Amino acid sequence: MYLKGGVLLTLLAAFQVSAEGRGARLCKPGFSEEVYHATIPASLTEGQALLNVRFVDCGRSVRLQYGSSDPADFRIGGDGVLYAARSFRVPGARARLLVVGAEDEDSRERWQTRVNLTPATSRTPQGQDSGEPQQVQEIQFPPRRRDGGALLKRIRRDWVIPAINVPENSRGPFPQELVRIRSDRDKNRLLRYSVTGPGADQPPTGIFIINPISGQLSVTKPLDREQISNFHLRAHAVDLNGNQVENPIDIVVNVIDMNDNRPEFIHQTWNGSVAEGSKPGTFVMTVTSLDKDDPGTANGILRYKILSQSPESPTSNMFTINNKTGGIITVAAGLDREKVQQYTLIIQATDMEGNPTYGLSNTATAVIRITDINDNPPEFTADTFYGEVAENRVNVIVANLTVTDKDQPNRPAWNAVYKITGGDALGLFSVPTDPTTNEGLVTVVKPIDYETSRTFELTVVAENEVPLARGIHLPRQSTATVSIRVVDVNESPEFHPNPKTLRTEEGLSPQTVLMAYTAQDPDRFMQQTIRYSKLHDPANWLKIDPVNGRITTIAVLDRESPYVKDDMYNVTFLAADNGVPPASGTGTLQIYLMDINDNAPHIQPQEAEMCEKPEPNAINITAEDRDLSRNAGPFAFELLPAVRKNWTLTRISSDHAQLALRIGFLESGVYEVPVVITDSGNPPLSNTSYLRVKVCQCDRSGDCADVERIVAAGLGTGAIIAILLCIIILLILVLLFVVWMKRRDKERQAKQLLIDPEDDVRDNILKYDEEGGGEEDQDYDLSQLQQPDTVEPDAIKPVGIRRLDERPIHPEPQYPVRSAAPHPGDIGDFINEGLKAADNDPTAPPYDSLLVFDYEGSGSTAGSLSSLNSSSSGGDQDYDYLNDWGPRFRKLADMYGGSDD
Prior knowledge:
The protein is mainly beta. 8% of the residues lie in helices and 35% in strands. The protein contains five helices and 55 strands. A four-stranded mixed sheet has the order 1-6-9-8, with no helix packed on it. It has a four-stranded mixed sheet with strand order 4-12-11-7, with no helix packed on it. It has a four-stranded mixed sheet with strand order 13-15-18-17, with no helix packed on it. The longest helix has 34 residues, at 717-750. The radius of gyration is 72 Å and the shape is flat.
């Protein structure tokens, strides 16, 4: 059956068919002549449910297997639902015939029917079918058979409702009715309908509403497919008490695309490149545009074309574009970068498959840069170039070769490379390229001799770094001639050979002519004279004639001279011409000096040590000769007769001998032993060498003792005594310095007294053991005045040795004790109390005694001197002698010797 809008299709296999009012029941196996129609989306996705196939068994119990005639695109599940087997787009707008079959698994009976599947398009929205007026669909639940009876309970699944297609951007009026949902149970009782899901009660809410009584589902505003392409809703039916009376059914609302979006290029300006000279059909670039509309419909199918080309040279159609992919290719020949470096194309993209009437368009710019190839060879600006160079000059530029090249500068197709193809057999020239100007720099790399070649004709070819493109030939201007003239200059005279070797014997006498060492002037075309001089002669042995170059000795040539290295003596001479400007050259004469016997031998070492006794007693000496071996050893050794009585000399090899004592003992000292040595030269030479032998006393190991070594070294007894005296004097000076330092410390301690050095009475007070302190005070113990705290107590002295002037043994009186910080006004009272106590002291002798006053401070090692001005002690004595003790004692004399006043 066909329900308008493609909402519901029920195929009744074995078959209960209602064909537009005709009632028929086909319960026998076979092929149904009736054709069913269904509308499906134009774009299908894999697994998308399309139709529901139902089988009415006519009272028979069968198990069915379903199948389709196109299983690659459509498949039928075991529950009878027709699915899309893959994602694809249904081409065209014509219906597609599909045969649906069912087979009984037990009896193998088969039933078949046909279905026309028509893709939906934006021009045939839901409810519009070939001009028929839109009708509202009705969805019933539970599903009903076409004969009005309810489906049998063995049906395992409810209906699958095909999607509802709603075009986007609808103009209304709103709300716009979409479908009516009802239940067959509304005949017996009142029901209420509702819809849930995104777009209804979930965001975005309010897009879809349903009449709860009539079940009419409506959309409230225009939909936008580019925002939401489909909605999944669920319809519900409940009674007045809210009890569910039907199972919910799923409703899918597809938003049908409308052409409401223009194509948009990914980039507004596209950049591409193609090499010049490219053949037609060469790919250049691809431009891409996007359309937000459904790409599965004509709304999103784009077509490209070129609107304009600038410049239109050499033709206005140099490029074409693939209208589907946007690929740009060349369509004509003649791309030449030197004429047109860049093309600008205006590209248009149109949807609706490029329909200019209904489609929407947009444009972009394509900039195509023509890249360079090497289609232009370098061309010389002249056929012949000229230059000149002075002879013997190297690394100088003699000519600049200029070329033109129409290719892009500073590229391999423009950079020139120069090659010399003729006229330079000796390789005297090279032509490097100036990287900035692309010029060829003709450069001399080897010296040129004017006397040999005066001119050169070079053939130079210019090429590019990369080969020319195919079909391009070198023009005549790619080859040029370079004419070079050589300028004659004054060249330096040259010695031949240089250096020159001369072999001669050493010892030549002065004024001996050795040879003539001359130089030649290479300037054959100049009349010049040469003068010679000596430039370097280390030992100053030679001279040269300035005119003819004859070399003469001015001193004896000595092979053993330090200026001779490896028997070779080098002298440098200078030859200068009289050209303008003058030139000079040098030559070296190497004189190989052959050895003669001109050096007498000598001994080594010249000093040695020997013990006084002959055993162990021997000195090994070696003969040396500066001459070569044939004029040196073997040597003959001999002692002079004057020393043979004490010494003996024995030869042990060709150049070694041994000196020993002939006698049993030789006194210590230094002896010079003359030894005569004769070499083997022709004629032989002799020499008397004096060996300085130091004879000394030896220890057990045979080595000289230290003192004896000093004596042997030449120090006499007087020198040794002088050294010892110096050491003694130094020790005495150190001792005197120590004594002086100690005395200085004592003087420093003595100066700590508050007495002037002139009045220091300590020089006059002497301690005389038992006699007392002096003539006047022999009965007094003056040691108590020096350090009273150190006086030995009487209790510990033995009986019978006390001095008469000591204090008797009595208890010490209790003198008044004063506070540490008395008031100044109490000082007088304190002193008076102390005097009274001293006067009444029975132990105090009739002389000044040592009293301690606490007022002077505790811990003092020296107390008060006495109770001054005592009224009961010595007032009648004569103290005038104190005037002789100094200024300080005069005060005491005045105090004691004065009147009572």
